[in-house]
Amino acid sequence: MAEEAEKLVNVICTFCGSVCDDVQFDVEKYKGKKFCKLGGSKFSKKERIKSPMIDGKEVSYEDAIEKAAEILVNAKRPLLYGWASTVNEAIRLGVILAERVGGIYDQCASVCHAPGTLALIEEGVPGGSLGQIKNRADMVVFWGSNPMEAHPRHPVRYSVRAKGLLIKSRKDRKVVVIDVRKTKSANMADLFIRIKPGYDYPIISALRALIKGEEDAVPDEVGGVSKAQLKELAEMMKSAKYGAILYGLGVTQSRGRDRNIENAIKLIQLLNRHTRWIIWPMRGHYNVVGAGEVPAWETGFTYAIDFSRGYPRFSPGEFSANEVLQRGDCDAALVIASDPAAHFPRASVAHLKKIPVIQIDPFPNMTTLVSDVVIPSAIAGIEAEGTAYRMDGIPFRVKKVIDTDYWSDEEILKLILEKVNEKLSAEEVV
Amino acid sequence: MKTEVEIISGRTLDQGETVEEKLTEDYFKAVSYCELSEEDFGTLELSDGDRVKVKTEFGEVVVFAVKNKDLPKGLVFIPMGPYANMVIDPNTDGTGMPQFKGIKGSVEKTDEKVKSVKELIEVI
Amino acid sequence: MMLHIKNGVVIDPKNNVNAEKMDVFVKDGKIVDESDVKREDCKVIDASNKLVVAGGVDMHAHIAGSKINTGREMRPEEMRVVRNIAGKFRAAIGRVLLTSPAIGYEYSKMGYTTAFEAAQPPVGALHTHEELDAIPLVDKGALPVFGNWHLVFKYVAEKDIEKLKTFIAWALERTKGFGVKVVNPGGVEAWMYGGNCKSLDDSVPGFDVTPREIITSLIQATEELKLNHSVHLHCNNLGTPGNYQTTLETMKLAGKFSNDKRQVLHVTHVQFNSYAGSSWRDVGSGAAEIAKYVNSVDNITIDMGQPIFGHATAMTGDAPFQFTLHKLTGARWSNKDSEIEGGAGIVPLIYLPKNPIHALQWAIGLELGLLIDSDKVVLSTDYPNGGPFTEYPYIMAMLMSKKMREKELERVSPYVQKATNLAAIDNEKTLFELIHMTRSLPSRVLGLDNKGHLGIGADADIAIYDLNPENVDTSNDFETVYKTFKKAVYTIKGGEIVVKDGELVKDLWGTTYWVDATGKVSMEAIDADLDEYFANYYSLERSNYGVEEAWLRNATKLIMG
Asked: For position C1, what pLDDT does the model report?
């Protein structure tokens, strides 16, 4: 029996922040080639939301969108959340929509890397693109980051095994993994350092003191790490020619949150007086960067943005999704390209259950279980095209390689915005 | 027998692989367990397939117990997801970010069943 | 839409019109002859006793792209000024840094109709375009940065001007860019090793080239390609006392080139590169020397880079300088080393009149504006590095009024008296000159024939101000002059009235210009090199690099002829 020829097209992966763009997809077999497990799962057949629904009943797109617009216009303070797994064109419409309805825009970084933004505000971020790491980094420190499970091809494409201008083999690079437990990523490290949970901040302070030559300030043990070990690490960092700290949720989600990163940035500032170092977050979703960049140019801020006064206000303590839900400060929600019912703490989900929820997503998830209006969308990167920013901010145009009857996020939001504008103009005339 | 622990939640490959299939059995298996160190596993007299109740001041959840020899004593790991989110700290300390990692709590063996994803949503 | 702008007093330097009462006719977005319109069908704008000029053209500002956005994200304190509450128009936010909607609105309210992003990271070109596409009302373009691109180093080292030309054409097409921008050539590559290239003959680490060679080769390639715009250069050694020498030496590199239509080298924000002295203790002004040289040649233009007292944000592709600024001021610092193309840095700033260094910088900018022929110096603040573009009227008023300068000199640090000659400069430029420096000159410098003037065939980008050039006393009425240029009575963009009495009345999108020189070269010549560099040194596929025209909201391709 003749083998069916592969109908491979080049695609760009739309799963994690690595945004691997060297991958291929068989459009007939619906199967990926060269992907890691995560991307491979994205580019494989899964159950879809079959049809737009209102209260579990199948309806047309137009009807579902009409209802969604009605919910948003009638709400006093709707929350528009998600955004990290869709394209910029859709996100921009979402920001404009949030502004139009006087609601709140928040995005997934709020439970991921937003602490990095807070640190950026305090200190700036001395960073670089992934190509710089590939070409120059002779030392890479994964801090609170487990790429083998969250960004599986990052090590081979950009940071551990990647070769470039100055790095010609794996031996030219030292890889350090710092975490509270021995993760799968520890296996690829030259040095694994286990620290006590919640002690990132003092350990970074100790490193700063050591690099400044103030070792007397450092006790014999900090956060479960011996002074000798810290001295060794500090020496390694100072002798590197171009180092990179790549940090993950281990740092942003534990005690200290943004202060941990602030401190790490100060460490990098210091190291740059001796040699060259950069620091960068390992962003989780393929366009979580876009979910922050788009509102930044449209409104000045990247998350936790309130429009109830007709202009954007930023306050993570007041306007991030979890704060807003836990305090009951929103009376409706639009959730797109995200699953807060699964990923938010129980106290937040409890409120989500009480308010009308509109969901826009290709796949049924836990938020679907609490949504009043469900609008199925095309999968960006397979069925819908658009711009996405990789974890280092480099823009990619993800592709449409399969035709579909599902509307894209962009199309859905465009019509929601139109309907909202109609309803609001009608109100204004009266 | 109850033991005091510190709870971490986070990504795993299996959880990531099924993150767009949350209403499937595969996802359920990927997120409804708690990894314990060899020592804690022994102290709690657990066998493979047993269930434990994880409790913090913020809530409780019943999950499957899994042994992980790379975990230090006193640290437990629950994959990110609805089960972990029953017990982690929702407070954001003004940052907007709940504390998903580093929560003090307790673990004990239990006969209670592990709720399905749909059952879990009902009780929240 | 047809317009009849009636009875206005027109200043149109390109067409030698100096305060003449003239009617202007508009049809289908262009300026037309009276015979091309039916008067009865025209909307009439009564411009009696008012100044009618082309819309302003800002040829160097940082308004779109990754570093601008990071600047916003870093500075929420900048984003708390509300300029417009959402309603008919978008909410518009910002103090000196502005959101994209605010940028378009503020330029328009001031009578500006074209603005160019001065430094576009090539690999981030799509991001720059997304932000340009979010700026309403004005026409736009972007200048990709070449001075630290490894492929440029390669062709300069190989002395292969043909391949360099091909590469430039390829890069402009891929980035949908407008011209060749060069920032601290070689220096940003040196920064990857913690160093810099402070002199023209420093060797770029890892490459057998010097800034001198890079600049000269890029000028040669650009001139042979006959691009609309010349090489646009941010000199080496920016921000260092004594650096005016480097600037002079750099300017001399243009000596052997000539071009009938425009300059062969545009040196940007020269204020930052005009310092005399040997340290911050004895730093002074090198403006006179720079001015003397620029006035003596006919193939170089500059823009001022004028500091405005108040808040600012230093953001440039000059990454090593930004780190120096961070160390100098202790301020927050962002940095982005970018693939094999260059880098960028951001540091918040504030210019205080009583600070001797800030006052010196302010004075130097003005000296350059006053001493250099008005046909060679464009008005700029290197927004946001020197300050807001909304303060261009301040600069205009200052250059036209010695009295205003005297008043300002009273409130600034006395250091200016001994370190510069500003107090002694009596020169007061005329309104004609200032209109040239803000409209016709920048358009010529960019090579945009349809902008910056009101001749037949020009784009109908027009600004009307409440000032009669026939009887305004720019020397004494500087307050009036300042206020007048802050707020256009009418701004017309492509024939549409978008601003009236300083308020927005209509929203629309402009176009993004880019230059296609691919017809002049054979791309295959560099194919193998591109494949090699992408495979070995970039972190993305060549097939995914670049921007397709269809992704832009409204692109206008200028084909090199």
From this structure: 81
pLDDT class of A2 with cuts at 50, 70, 90? very low
Give yes or no for A9 touching C (CB within 8 A). Answer: no
**Same domain (yes/no): A100, A170:** no
The token pair at B52 is: 């434990």
Supply the range of the domain harboring residue B62: 2-123
CATH of the domain at B102: 2.40.40.20
Determine, for residues C536 and A164 on separate chains, whether the beta-carbon distance falls below 8 Å: yes
Residues A365, A409 within the same domain: yes
Residues A267 and A130 in one domain: yes
| Chains within contact range of chain B (3+ C-beta pairs < 8 Å) | A
- Shortest CA gap B102–chain A (Å): 6
Chains B and A touch (3+ CB pairs under 8 A): yes
For A326, the enclosing helix (H) or strand (E) is helix A321-326
Answer for the pair C149, C522: CB distance below 8 angstroms, yes or no: no
| CATH number of the domain where residue A334 is located | 3.40.50.740
Question: Within 13 A of A121's CA, how many CA atoms are on the CB side?
Answer: 21
pLDDT digits (tens, 9 = 90+) for C35-48: 999 999 999 999 99
The type of residue at B117 is V
CB neighbours (10 Å) of residue A187?
11
- The per-residue pLDDT for range C33-88, each reduced to its tens digit, is 999 999 999 999 999 999 999 999 999 999 999 999 999 999 999 999 999 999 99
Contact A276 C543 (CB under 8 A): no
Looking at the predicted structure, is the pLDDT value of residue A3 above 70?
A: no
Query: In which domain, by residue range, is A417 found?
Result: 48-112+286-381+405-429
User: What pLDDT sits at residue C276?
Assistant: 98
Give chain C's domains with CATH numbers: 2-53+452-504 (2.30.40.10), 54-446 (3.20.20)
Is A128 in Cβ contact with C337 (below 8 Å)?
A: yes
Query: So what's the pLDDT on residue A427?
Result: 75
User: Would you tell me which residues 143-172 of chain A have a C-beta closer than 8 angstroms to some C-beta of chain B?
Assistant: 146, 148-150, 152
Number of domains forming the structure of chain B: 1
If one counts the domains in chain A, the total is: 2
Output the 3-class SS for B39-89.
HHHHHCCCCCCCEEEEEECCEEEEEEEEECCCCCCCEEEEECCCCHHHCCE
